Each structure stands twice: as structure tokens, then as C-alpha cells.
Amino acid sequence: MRGHSNTSCHCSCMVMQILFHTVQVLSQAEHRAGYCAFYEECGRNPSLEGALIPPIVPCRNYSRARELTGEHYRKLKEVCSHGKKVQLISNKRTIVSLNILTLSKALLVRCPSCAENFAHLHCINTCSPNQSQTVKVTKVMNVTHLGKTREVVVEYQAYLATSFADGAFQSCQNVRIPATGGFAIATMCGRYGAKLCTPQRWYDFQGDTSNGLAPLDIDFRLIKPGEVEGVPEGVIPYKGRALKCNETTPSGGQVCSCQDCKESCPVLPPPPLPPGPFRLLGTDGFLVISIILFCLLIFSFLFFLLVSCLKGKDQNCNDVSQRVIHPAEVSCADRNSMAAQAFLSSVFQKWGTFMVLLVSAVVVLGFGTGLMFIELTTDPVELWSAPNSRARQEKDFHDKHFGPFFRTNQLILTAPGRKGHIYDSLLFGTQNFSGLVSKDLVIEMLLLQKKIQVNVTEDLNRTASLKDVCFAPLNPNNSALTDCAVNSLPQYFQNSLDNINAKRVLGDIRLLFCAFSSSPLSFKDITDLGLSCMADYGAPVFPFLAVGGYRGECDEYTNAEAFILTFSLNNYPRTNVKYNVALQWEKEFLKIVQDYQSNPTTNFTFAYMAERSLEDEINRTTAEDIPIFMISYAVIFVYIAVALGEYSSWRRILVDSKFLVGLGGILVVACSVLASMGFYSWIGIPSSLVILQVVPFLVLAVGADNIFIFVLEYQRDVRKPGEEREQQIGRVLGNVAPSMLLCSLSESVCFFLGALSTMPAVKTFALYAALAVLMDFVLQMTAFVALLSLDARRQDNNRCELLCCVTVATQKSNQPNEGFLLPLMRKYYAPVLLNRYMRFIVMLVFLFMFSASLYLMFNVTVGLDQELAMPKGSYMLDYFQYLYKYLEVGVPVYFVTKRGFNFTTEEGMNAVCSSVGCDQFSMIQKIQYAANHPEQSYIGISANSWVDDFIDWLNPGSRCCRLYSFGPNHILYSYDSGEIIGETFQKSDSSPQRFPKEIHRTRDAAFLPMRAASRFMAYHTPLTNSQEFTAALLRARELAYDITQGMLKINGTSPDFEVFPYTVTNVFYEQYLTIVPEGLFNISLCLLPTFVVCCLLLGLDLRSGLLNLITIIMITVDTVGFMTLWGIHYNAVALINLVTVSAVGISVEFVSHMTRSFALSIKPTHVERAKEATANMGSAVFAGVAMTNLPGILVLAFAKAQLIQIFFFRLNLVITLLGMAHGLIFLPVVLSYFGKCFCQQ
């Protein structure tokens, strides 16, 4: 005994675990050195019923202390291990009874100095030779024990100096329970919990028989130095020195770990701050770079103008010395360009004379039959996470070894109209309570919970209920309804209306709630109810999972503004029969909740979701927005049909209209899409809803341009004398088909290269789009040419379009029909645009826009918030709003270890655990250090550790039975986040063996194998947007890498051992770690074939190809810049639009036709050639691309899906307008300055 040499007296006063209700009988006792007040056992405390352990109480016996030796002394030292021999008269029965102290000591054993301080106090009270000087017996009763009636002690006072009491309390204040992450003191301070616990309250709870462990009442009196009032004469308060938590113990115990003792923590440098914004010259670095770039571009342009004009050019800086030259002087590039044009023209001229409608139909039908095997991918994981991606492999590994993360069905309930209360409690002081925390609302929530729990579904010809699919961690086989994991506030009452309505609550549920929220691990509270705080399924419900929206410090749960009701279901593979059962149960769950919400008597305002809700809402809005797409296609069709007509006379309107030609163009697009989908269905590549929505729109935009170019060129052409209609069509086709081939081939090659993307949705989209564009071109060159030939024959015969038997007398004019757009652009637009001063202004404006967009591009937001996937008015939008507002903890994050780490060695366990003797930089300690800086690590609650649980289980100080026998083996169970984490261990009959951490057990030995996998669960901080989810993933991976490097240094660790973080959302947000470089790669892949094809089809014209490429790059950069201005985030959906629409689709259509038209013009000067290209091809591009896309895009503004509104309406509108501006304004000006010269022979 500390401070007492060789004597000791035993009175079986078991402390913290030795207490309960008593009868008051005062007795006078003397207080002298060397005397005991009681000793030995005299039977049960007759006043206690329902204690967790037998309430054995000591005999009242004032006598001299006697020496204790032999076996009794050895057993005493197991509990009161203070090193020296003691004097005590006792017997085996009284010494064994003191072992009950170990039940409470087990909670503190992680910190030896704390556990020793705790045990030392109670050993002083029961074993000190001067016991009568520190205690005063206040209540005794007569008890007949073993046929003899004797006085027993049922209450006494213990006097302690505050120096010892405060020191002991401080040494235990931060000791944690690994399985929960909470403080051990919270379970040992009754209703006060960790926050309100004080030394006096801590000791009071230990001495209160209502805690279920104490066999008698102890009134602890904490005496300040010099205080004499209230201290009986002869009483000397115990003044021993309490060990600090960072001190070793006299019995050889090590200092407490950092997790349990702040004083033991190493001095760590603060974590590095996240990198700040890029800065140059004291301001935004990207802004400085953009300004410098703009100045350089302007200076270079001005320098070019100056040099060009000094070389003797006219006012437009065009060479005035143009002359007719000899053929031998024609450059190689010019000869190649003319040869390529002549070759392609001859090829397509011959092609155009064949009628191949039947052949085209057979080919389309052949491919289309593959649609019988089409598979639609709706699983978001399959859509956005590549099978070989790191997050996907980690998910597969986790699901293989631990099963998929359970399905969550949740309600967040509030009562905003109710006033709060201030509750003045003698126990807690003044407490603020929100209006939500009231008895009637808890009862109403319980009734709703029970209604949902008994939800029965009819599926697969059988009746299924919650117990068939629920997550039941403690009884996964043959689960009952009460085994299902349901987290809610009524679980503090075991979902019992009787417990809530019990009279002993005195009508004030708030007091009970406060007690539960402070001590969720208590098996018996200290109110009159004596209820357990554990849920009915056997696990604790932590307050941060039951309530939300509390203000102030993290555990002021009485301020909660929301109840959280969560039903967890097993997550079965989609091929499992029970998957459909779970879906059906969730469907009924949603129906019950929606009916409850529509009930006018409901007192809650709430939001809700089921695991199936995201996919359901996406599919619902897709189906609802199909009419919008149909209307969009119809608008485009009507425009094409009307705009292609010639309309030379009102009498010939029905003859000159092109309704059937427009319909034929639409059918060509539809057939190309069907052929593409059928082909890929044949070979087993699944489709998706994105493909069904976007590919037809894209192909229609691309195909309509080709249709306009071809039809307008035919209408503007005059048939030569003696030329047949088919020959004319073939000749016209020979003129324009190379341009159509240039665009279609560029787009198709680009899309095929886009299939190199790692994102499944982008990859499959690129494959479907590439083949669809290619098929569209082939069908246009065959089927559409045939349709146009048939329509031309009808028109030549003056037959009405829809009434072929009806003819009109008015003959067709022999003059070419230029329409109104070509003369307008030739006479007004082109001259104004290519005016000397206007060209200079255009260059300045577009160079400024490019530089500004480059700056904005570096500030674009990366990510896709999940609420954007929901349609407007969806109940999921309310749920996300409630989730971000009220939940105070984020998603769980598991740190998973792979096979290859040896847990059986002391060194191996020390590298993982966090209790006494563990490495200061073990796995759990590193996670704890990260949790100390949640604003940077995004770890809100440190990890649970089954290794620490296992060590505690092995600890000889823990007598709680956790070993269950099944045949020849033993199964170790340990609760860790609701899962069984133990292994099967062989039974051993050998003598006591040495275990890791130098822990001994007799007879039964447990050995940890080289586990295939293990996991340790922590919690993220609340994450509210994709940027935070992405940052949390990155920080968790950095932390896991650091942990891995540390554990690889342990002897016996496999070189390929790894620790990785797993969160259920990782597969969705991993793409944003690499989407910027991947986007640059994909766009570059698209730009390269565009440049190459342009150069090849123009006869190795590098200059035209380069100008074409530069303009497309500018369109792409400007698009991203405007995305920043309009709040469009950069993500996979945006990348699809940028690659398919901006960098390839629309841009190529706007730019490549114009570039080729300029390159093949034979006008003498750059400006005249630019004017010709702008008027002739620009009018066709404007009518065919801009005016085809804009009406269809504007219709999409009425879609319900936010994704369609943002990424298909806004983004496509931006791309179309920018493409039109660059193709019809900037490109003609650039060509007039830098375009290729053409030497006329």
C-alpha cells in the first residue's frame, strides 16, 4: 500500500462496483491507527434487488489490523498491486470478493496509472491497516449468514484529500474506449457523462448502489487542504499521491498512450497548410499570366501587320503582285491540294449516281437486330468507375472480405414551429432544450418507426419483412425484428412505449434524454427507471447518429433540432434474389413515409431517402424528359423541312417544299444511331441512358449540317446542257462530299480515340458516337443521295410532295435558287466583317476573350454535386438540404489492411494499437493525430480498433466473459461498429502462454492468424459538396500511405502489404482526382486527328490545318471560361460535351467547312477568298449548324432534370454560340490575315 508499510486490513468494501440502496442505521465508530472498521463477508445486502452482481457486504467489526500472508496475500496483490507486504486478517472468501473491483478497472486498464489510482483508492478503503481513520460507518443492518446473525455495513463515508481525488480524476479523464471512440469516464460518471463529470461526481457514481455494481453505498467526502468542518474527530483524509497519466507505475506499468493521456503525446509539428492560391507579383498568378499572354498576342499581331504592310501590300495587307504563273512554278502543296480535291470529287461523283436505298435498309436492319440483346447500365458505379480503377478495386476487395456497405434508409425529422425550453436541473444545472426534445414527439416518432418496422412486402411469391433483409450485426442468421439495426432516439428506451410513459420519469423526458446522450454505453442508468441505454438489437446508439443540428460544442445534444431515424439493410449483389426483396421493402418504406408526410396531423417536418432513391429519381426524370427530347427533335425536323424548301412561287409551295427530304434526313440519323446501338449490343457492350439521350442529339446536329450543305449546293447549282439529273447530283456531291468527309472522319476518329478514356460512361459514349457518326456519313452518301434524287425527280415533274398524284402548272425557274441568306451574307455581312478596321477589332476582341477565358479556365469548379442529378421538385433535394444542415458527422471511412501483416507478434500489434505500450506512431495513433485536425484531414472521429479490444479481452484485469465455445473451437466476439471481427481460434490445453503485449491467460489461448483483411472504422467530418468529398478521399489516401510505410518496417510484413481507405462514395469521387489531366488528354486526342485529317484531305495543307486547330482550341478554352461564369462545373458529363460537342462536333462543323472552302477558293486575294467562303459556306453552316442546334437546345431549357438544364441546355448553348462566333466571325478574319495563298494558273 502506498504510504503504509506492512499492515493492512480487509473489509470487503468493493468500491465503484460495490454499492446499492440501503437502510439507514447510524453507528458510532472510533478512528484509531492500526484498526479496521469492518472485514470479511456477511452475505447479501438485504435492501438491494436487481443488482448486476451479487451485492455481498462486509461484516461490521471494529478490531486491530492483522497480517495477511500466503495465498490470500497473493490474491490481494492481483488487485491491489502496490508492491509491499500488507497486514490484514482476512480469508479466501473476502479476498476473492475484492476481485469484483476488476469489472470497473477493466475500463481503465488501457492507462496503468489511471487504473492503479482507481484501484488504490478502493484498496485503501478496504485493506488499509488504518482503515478506521479514513472511513466512517454510517449504516448497518442485521443479516443472517451461514446460520449466524451479524451486523453488516451497508453504507459508510470515505474521506479523501482533494489533491489525491483531483489527481486520480485527471489521470483517468481522457482514457478512451476503443470500440466506441468515447471516454471511459462517460460510463463511470452516470448521467453527467464526460463533459459534466467532476471528481466529486465521479466518486459519487462509484459509491451509488443504483449503478448496478456497488453492493453498498459509499459517501465520498473530498476535503480541501486545511478544511476541518464536517470531518469527524480522529478522521484523517487520505492524502496519498496520485500517479500522473504520463508516469510509470510502481508495479511496472508503462506510461499511458497519447490517445488516453495528452501529456504523453509527442510534440508534433502542425500539419502543413493546404497550398495557397498561385500568386505572382503579389496578385493572382493566373491573372498575371493571362494579361502577359494577351499583351504578347497583341504585340505579335501588330508586329505581323507592320511587317506585312512594309512588304508592299494593299490597304488590306494583301499581295498586289498576283500574276498568272507557269505550271512549273506551282508549289507541291498546291498540286497536292488540287489533286486531292479532284480525286475526291471524282470518287463521290461516281458514288452519287447509284441508288442504294434497299441495300442501306438491309444493312441497317442487320445491325439493328442486335437491339434484341441490348443491356442498359443504370448502376452509377458501373457508369462512372472503371473496373480497373483504384477505387473500384478497393471497393471490390472490401466487399469480397466484409460484404457490401449496408443500404441506408433514413428520415431526418424536425419540428421548427415549437419553442425551446430552459430546464434548471439540480443535477445538470441550467440546460437549453430545443422544442424538438419533447415526450410527445418522441412517441410520435416511435409509432412511425414501428409502422415502418412491421412493413411487409409481397415479392417472389412470398411474404418478406424487415427481418429478412435487415442488417443485424449481432445476430445475422435467423434474425428477429429486434435484431435489426435501427438507430433512433427511442432506442434509448428499447423502443418501448411503457418505458417512455413510465410514471417514474416524472413527466420529464428531457432528464432521461440527457442521461442517455451522455452515457450511451450504460447498461443501467441511475434514474428510477434503471433502464439500459443500449438499443434493442444490443448495440449502443451514439447521440450523433440519433440527433442532429445541435449548436455549440459537439456534444450539446439537448439543442438538437433534428431526430435521425435510420434503417440499415444488407446490400446484396444485384444477381441475388434478396436484392429484389430489399428493393421491394424500400418501395413500401417510401410509400409509408410519403403517406405519413401527407397526413395533416403530422407534427414533423422532415426529409427522407431510401437506398434506391437516387437511381429511382434519375430513371424517373429520364423518362419524364423523353418528351422534351422528342419535342426538341421535332423542332429540328420542322426547321429542316421548312428551311430546305426553295419557295420560288406560292403556287409551287407544295412542290418546292422539302418535308420528305427533311424526314429522310431525320430517318438517316435515327438509322445510324440504331445501327450503332445494334452493333455494340451484338458484341456485348452495354448502353446507358446518357447514350440514348445525347448520341441522337449529337448525330442530328452533325448530320443536319451535311444535309444543308449538300441540298443548298444542289439548289444553287444549274444543270448543264445535256446533263442528267443523277449526273448533276453526282457532280454536286463530288463538290461537297470531301468537306462532309473531312468533318465526319475527324469526328469519328476522335470519338474512337475517346474510347481510350478510363471512365466507362465516357468510353461507351465515345464508341457509340463514333460508329453512329460514321454510319450517318455512309447513309448520307447512299440512302440520302437516293432520297434527294427521287425528290428531285418529283420536283422536276411538278408533283406535290405529300400528294404525288397532284401536279401544278407553274414551271420551275431555270435560275439557281440562292435563297435569302446567301445574298444577305454576300452583300452585307461579309463586306462589313472583312472591313479593314473591323478585322482589327475582331482580332482584339477574340484575343482578349481567349486570354480572359484562359484565366477563368483555371478557376473552374471541378466536381458534380449529387443533388444536381435530381430533378427539380424531387424529395431527394429536400433530403440533401436536411443532410447538410443537420448531420454533425460524415460518412464512415474504413482503413482496410490487406494480407501480409503479422498481428501475432508484439511488434506487429504495437504498430496497430493505441493503448499503453503501443507505438506512438501506430496506425490508430496516426488516425487520431489526423482527427485532431479535422479541418485539414477531414477525419471527424478517430478509428475504432479491434486490436485494442482484443488486447483488453486478453488482459487478466478483464474478467468479462467473451469466449463462446462451439465444438472443438473457440470463437472470439468483439463489437466493432456492429460487426463480428474475431477469428476462429483452436482450443489449447497447454500451460499459461506468452501473448503479445506480455499478456497471460491460463488454459485457453487465442492466437491471431495472418488475416486476409482487417478494417478499422473512423468517421469523416460532414462533407457537403464534391470538392470536400474529393479532398477527403485524397487526404485519407495520403494518411493510409503514411500508415502503410510505417507498417512495412515491421519485421515479417509482406512487401506488397497495403493499407487503403474505403468509403462508399470513393468510386464516384475518385474521377475528380484525375479528371483534369484526363480531360486534357481526351481533348488532345480529339484535336490531333482533326488536324491530321484536315491536312490530309486538303492535300497536306499544314497552314489550313493549323488555323483550323487553333480556332477549335480557342472555342474549347472559351467554353470552359464561360462555364466558370455561368456556374457550370467541370466533370465527366461536361467532359463528354466538351469532347463530343465542343472540341469535335460543333467546332469541327463550324470551322472545317469554312477552312476547306477558303483553301479551295480561286479568288486572287486573301480577303476576297475569305468573303467568298463566308458567303457561300458560311450561309450553309449558319443555316445547317447554328439554326439547327439552337431551336432544339432552347427546348431543353424546359427539362425537369437539372443535369439536362445545366449540361445540355446551358453548356450546349454556350458551345453553339461560341462555335458560331468563331466559325463565322473570327475564322474568316484569321484566314484573311494568315490563310494560305492560292496561285492561279
UniProtKB/TrEMBL annotation:
It is a multi-pass membrane protein. Its main location: membrane. One of its GO terms (cellular component) is endomembrane system. Residues 1-28 form the signal peptide. One of its GO terms (molecular function) is cholesterol binding. InterPro entries: HMGCR/SNAP/NPC1-like_SSD, NPC1_MLD, NPC1_N, SSD. The chain crosses the membrane at residues 285-307, 354-374, 626-647, 659-683, 689-712, 732-759, 765-790, 837-858, 1079-1099, 1106-1126, 1132-1152, 1173-1199, 1211-1234. One of its GO terms (biological process) is cholesterol homeostasis. This is NPC1 like intracellular cholesterol transporter 1.
